[in-house]
TrEMBL record, chain B:
<feature type="region of interest" description="Disordered">
    <location>
        <begin position="191"/>
        <end position="223"/>
    </location>
</feature>
<feature type="transmembrane region" description="Helical">
    <location>
        <begin position="531"/>
        <end position="559"/>
    </location>
</feature>
<dbReference type="Pfam" id="PF22599">
    <property type="entry name" value="SecDF_P1_head"/>
</dbReference>
<dbReference type="InterPro" id="IPR054384">
    <property type="entry name" value="SecDF_P1_head"/>
</dbReference>
<dbReference type="InterPro" id="IPR005791">
    <property type="entry name" value="SecD"/>
</dbReference>
<keyword id="KW-1133">Transmembrane helix</keyword>
<feature type="compositionally biased region" description="Low complexity">
    <location>
        <begin position="191"/>
        <end position="222"/>
    </location>
</feature>
<feature type="transmembrane region" description="Helical">
    <location>
        <begin position="507"/>
        <end position="525"/>
    </location>
</feature>
<comment type="function">
    <text>Part of the Sec protein translocase complex. Interacts with the SecYEG preprotein conducting channel. SecDF uses the proton motive force (PMF) to complete protein translocation after the ATP-dependent function of SecA.</text>
</comment>
<comment type="similarity">
    <text>Belongs to the SecD/SecF family. SecD subfamily.</text>
</comment>
<comment type="subunit">
    <text>Forms a complex with SecF. Part of the essential Sec protein translocation apparatus which comprises SecA, SecYEG and auxiliary proteins SecDF. Other proteins may also be involved.</text>
</comment>
<dbReference type="InterPro" id="IPR048631">
    <property type="entry name" value="SecD_1st"/>
</dbReference>
<dbReference type="InterPro" id="IPR048634">
    <property type="entry name" value="SecD_SecF_C"/>
</dbReference>
<feature type="transmembrane region" description="Helical">
    <location>
        <begin position="459"/>
        <end position="479"/>
    </location>
</feature>
<feature type="domain" description="SecDF P1 head subdomain">
    <location>
        <begin position="268"/>
        <end position="381"/>
    </location>
</feature>
<dbReference type="Pfam" id="PF02355">
    <property type="entry name" value="SecD_SecF_C"/>
</dbReference>
<keyword id="KW-0812">Transmembrane</keyword>
Length: 390, 608
């Protein structure tokens, strides 16, 4: 196993840096290809909706003795007539087997009826056929979409407030839609059946994608805030450094999230064959991988593009350019290093007091002599002027 | 031995976590011992099977069900099922005619009835009232009364196999037979005088009907809904023949909102001729069940349903009560009917203009809550009869769950190995945190299964497995921040504190967004999506709880040990391996300089 600690050091300090933001064309192109594939899948293949969405045919074989192998018997009987029917088999009561399939034509229904009757050793009269309506009907989808719209609007508002810029919210949502679209598209391309469980899988991806983007953006926020304070880095550089600094986190998190799902995938593939478990695991695997990718490669460059043109950021870039020219043109982590701002009230001194003690000592190795006014104590107390001056 | 002052706070926090966990497990244990909870989480329809109810619409004559009606009925039934908890039931239409409800477990009879009842609530003025039985037998059972034959019972529907409606309402009634007729509107506090079925009152019957005779000869078109001119001789005859003590007497009753109605109260104690509908059930904006407050604000033990009407309902209700106040008994009474049966018929004592009313009746708190939900989500366009009720086997084989769990264990083992490789000894903290999170999740799901009927389906199980990743991420964010701080040259204890402050912000923001997702989806979506939202919200909360109450205090405690604080090379926080800028002054920007303290500063506590 590779140990990322050393890589993390280099990425953190800026000794090694991957130009995520600068090579945006490459990433956009890659995403463009994925989106194109997804669109092709959606347009030509379409989503293969299960009978929970579109309704289907239902057969009931009554008056049978239900053996242990009823499920396989029924499935074989149905697929021998209609291979694409995706049968779902359950028992109802003690002597009835229910088989639900996708919508079949009248001729197919008759064939399946006789095939089932033969398989279970009854007459075709004991196999009833009817249509079932969708359990996840249009109204459920509509409500879910409404909820989604409200949620996205709220999340955009919350992100805009938290990050103090609506552009981060837009970039985050763009990444989210990117992830969902690609996952759904790949699903369509692979021709897997979309069941309510898959829908839940897609929603899980939505949650994960947002989570991941917020984590990366929080570091971007921290670094760019610092850069704007000291003017040593342009917005793009600070954002790029942030992505590099969180890269080890992103890799570790993605691996940790993907490991259990990979386990499900392998086990599902080896022992179970196609089924809810495998479908879900695949959706999640693709979705989480894409989600991690988009936070780094799509969301951040997108954000930088949106903000780079702001007058303030143009100004910052100029300032940073001047500074870097003076200092040999190298971007270092210390330029965006978190500085002690206002400390939290609950922990007024611990880490901080060590530092200020160091400042007071004016130890060797200080870059530049600090003004004695600044070194005189941990804090400049306000002095009360004499009464005559008040 | 004195406790290191640095450790006081973490220890306190850990104690809080222990208290929370013990409390939750204690609650579960108590619920299993004295309640009907179980230690295992409840499983959903696809994993454990359940009960399938086939509901057939009750049709009068050869009326047909339109697909619109059926879909509307399905949507309302879905809402009613959802109101019973997050069980994840499946509601489909079948054959363009029936509605199939598949629910996990075995729902109690009351739930079944609540789902399929039409719950048409109507408000009609009382034209005439009489005790419910025609020929009171001293024993109180009048089932042998010969008069009770005739028109109302004659129209039995073809599909109905059981006499459903009266038993359904009867099941909800738990008040003793001798109690007074239920209920009054809030403003109208006096309960109307009732003739209990034990008092022989032949005179009352005639007395109530006689006022109708002079009126019938008069005007043909009634002035208002309380006008006695509406009572035709047929109605009088039907009224006299009606015997409310007989089962199934109201089956096939034709309830036309524009015409008067002859019906019984739900206890069968009184029968009425009611005027046309004046306020409809769909004019109710909200319905809440609760205990009626006493004058001192304390809740009493009388169960009431508080209704608030929408603007048109408020107006209509105000007009009716204004008119009824001035009429003589029994025409000053206002009947509340549910599925054509009178729930309560209190006397109007004042005009109610603010659109707030309260119904008290023979409710238990449970039946009142069911009814309030039904009123809130609207009435079904049709009544349904239970056609079949069967056990249904799980759609997913048991091997899917088993394999899913095996995969979860393998996945967890891989996560364990990976975090040990990446974070050395700190990886143990990750694993311990995940185990704590898993224990808390388990107890929460078992408890929610008991209180909210929360059930795990396959999607939920995979969601929980994914949650391992999201939960582990909080620790990864935290550890990476600590490492960043160590790289900055901070001694470990300081690095833990500053790293925590930064990581906490990130974790709160990210979890906040996830929790928002869960909350919005839970409120607005229906059926399966609600179940998902529930799982997401739960795991997010537990993630937050564990990282605040377990991971951080444990890391804080560990940072004062020699192994971690000294930066042992297997601790995962070795400053040299992390390339810390040891003993080098660091310019911290804005004219400040940060000097890392020598390593000895970590153990002497001088920073205090």
């Amino acid at each position: 196993m590779i140990n990322f600690a050393a890589l993390g050091n280099d990425l953190y300090t800026g000794k090694r840096s991957i130009d995520f933001v600068g090579r945006y064309k490459r990433w956009y192109l890659l995403s463009g290809i994925f989106i194109l594939l997804a669109t092709l899948g959606l347009v030509f293949q379409g989503l293969n909706l299960s009978l929970e969405f579109s309704g289907g045919s239902e057969f009931r074989v009554s008056k049978v003795t239900v053996s242990d192998t009823y499920e396989q018997t029924a499935k074989d009987a149905v697929t021998s007539v209609a291979p694409a029917a995706a049968p779902e088999v359950t028992t109802i009561g003690s002597n009835t087997v229910r088989v639900q399939t996708e919508k079949l034509s009248d001729a197919q229904i008759r064939d399946v009826q006789s095939s089932l009757a033969k398989a279970f050793g009854t007459t075709a009269g004991d196999v009833s056929a009817s249509f079932v309506g969708p359990s996840w009907g249009a109204s459920v989808s509509q409500k879910a979409l409404q909820a989604l719209a409200v949620f996205l609007a709220l999340v955009a508002a919350v992100m805009a407030i938290y990050f103090r810029t609506w552009k981060m919210a837009v970039a985050g949502l763009a990444a989210l839609i990117h992830d969902l679209f690609i996952t759904v598209g790949i699903y369509a391309l692979a021709g897997f059946e979309v069941s309510p469980a898959t829908m839940i899988g897609f929603l899980t991806i939505l949650g994960y994608s947002l989570y991941d983007t917020v984590v990366v953006f929080d570091k971007v926020r921290e670094n760019t805030h610092e850069a704007r304070g000291n003017g040593r880095m342009s917005y793009a550089q600070a954002a790029n450094l942030a992505v590099n600094q969180t890269l080890v986190r992103s890799i570790n998190t993605t691996v940790v999230a993907l490991l259990p799902i990979a386990a499900i995938l392998v086990i599902g593939f080896l022992f179970l064959g196609p089924g809810t478990l495998l479908d879900l695991a695949l959706a999640l695997f693709v979705g989480i991988a894409v989600g991690a990718y988009s936070s780094i490669f799509i969301a951040t460059p997108l954000l930088v593009h949106m903000r780079d043109k702001e007058p303030e950021m143009v100004e910052l870039a100029k300032k940073a350019h001047r500074y870097q020219a003076r200092h040999g043109g190298k971007v270092l982590a210390s330029d965006a290093a978190p500085v002690e701002h206002g400390r939290d009230e609950e922990q007024p001194e611990d880490a901080g007091s060590l530092e200020s003690a160091g400042v007071g000592a004016s130890a060797p190795g200080v870059v530049r002599g600090t003004h004695k006014y600044a070194t005189s104590g941990p804090r400049n107390q306000p002095r009360r002027p004499p009464k005559s001056r008040r | 031995m004195a406790i290191n002052p640095y450790n006081r706070k973490p220890l306190k926090v850990l104690a809080a976590l222990a208290a929370v966990s013990i409390g939750l497990y204690g609650l579960l244990f108590a619920a299993v011992t004295w309640g009907d909870a179980q230690f295992k989480p409840k499983l959903g329809l696809d994993l454990a099977g359940g009960t399938q109810l086939v509901l057939a619409p009750r049709l009068v004559g050869n009326a047909k069900v339109s697909s619109d009606q059926l879909n509307q009925a399905r949507d309302i039934i879905v809402q009613r099922v959802d109101a019973n908890g997050v069980a994840g039931a499946e509601v489909t239409t079948s054959g363009g005619r029936n509605i199939v409800v598949s629910m996990p477990g075995t729902p109690p009879k009351a739930t079944e009835d609540a789902i399929r009842r039409s719950s048409q609530m109507q408000f009609r003025p009382v034209l005439a009232a009489a005790p419910g039985t025609n020929q009171p037998v001293p024993t109180g059972t009048s089932t042998t009364g010969g008069t009770a034959t005739g028109t109302p019972t004659g129209k039995a529907t073809g599909t109905a196999t059981k006499p459903a409606v009266p038993t359904a309402t009867g099941a909800a009634t738990t008040t003793k037979a001798g109690s007074a007729l239920p209920g009054a509107f809030v403003r109208a506090t006096t309960t109307p005088a009732t003739g209990a079925s034990t008092t022989p009152a032949p005179t009352a019957t005639t007395g109530a009907v006689t006022p109708t005779t002079p009126a019938t000869g008069g005007t043909a078109t009634p002035k208002d809904a309380s006008d006695l001119a509406q009572i035709t001789p047929q109605l009088t005859a039907a009224f006299q023949q009606l015997d409310c003590s007989k089962d199934g007497v109201l089956d096939g009753i034709v309830d036309d909102p524009a015409k008067p109605l002859v019906t019984c109260s739900d206890t069968g104690a009184e029968k009425y001729i009611l005027g046309p509908v004046e306020v409809r059930g769909d004019q109710i904006k909200d319905a809440v069940a609760g205990y009626q407050p006493l004058s001192n604000g304390q809740p009493s033990n009388i169960v009431e349903i508080r209704l608030s009407f929408n603007s048109s309902g408020t107006k209509a209700f105000g007009n009716v009560t204004k008119r009824l106040v001035n009429l003589e008994d029994p025409r000053n009474r206002f009947a509340v009917t549910l599925d054509s049966q009178v729930l309560t018929a209190p006397t109007a004592q004042a005009a109610i203009l603010d659109g707030q009313a309260s119904i008290t009746g023979s409710f238990t708190i449970q039946s009142a809550r069911d009814l309030a939900n039904q009123l809130k989500f609207g009435a079904l366009p049709l009544s349904f009869d239970l056609q079949t009720r069967d056990e249904i086997s799980p759609t997913l084989g048991s091997e899917q769950l088993q394999m899913g769990l095996v995969a979860g264990v393998i996945g967890f083992a891989l996560v364990f190995l990976y975090s040990l490789g990446q974070y050395r000894a700190l990886g143990l903290v990750t694993v311990a945190s995940i185990i704590i999170a898993a224990l808390l999740t388990y107890v929460s799901i078992a408890l929610l299964g008991w209180s909210q009927n929360f059930r795990l389906d396959m999607a939920g199980v995979t969601g929980l497995i994914v949650a391992i990743g999201v939960t582990a991420d909080s620790f990864i964010v935290y550890f990476e921040r600590i490492r960043d701080e160590v790289r900055e040259g901070r001694p470990l204890r300081a690095a833990v504190d500053t790293g925590w402050r930064r990581a906490r912000r990130t974790i709160l923001a990210a979890d906040g967004v996830n929790f928002l997702a869960a909350f919005v989806l839970y409120l607005l979506a229906s059926s399966n999506v609600r179940g998902f939202a529930f799982t997401l919200g739960l795991t997010t909360l537990i993630d937050l709880l564990v990282v605040v109450l377990f991971t951080h205090p444990v890391v804080a405690l560990l940072s004062s040990t020699k192994f971690f604080g000294g930066g042992h090379r297997w601790s995962g926080l070795d400053p040299q391996r992390l390339g810390a800028k040891a003993n080098r002054a660091r310019y911290a920007g804005r004219g400040r300089v940060a000097m890392p303290a020598p390593a000895s500063a970590t153990s002497d506590g001088s920073a205090l």
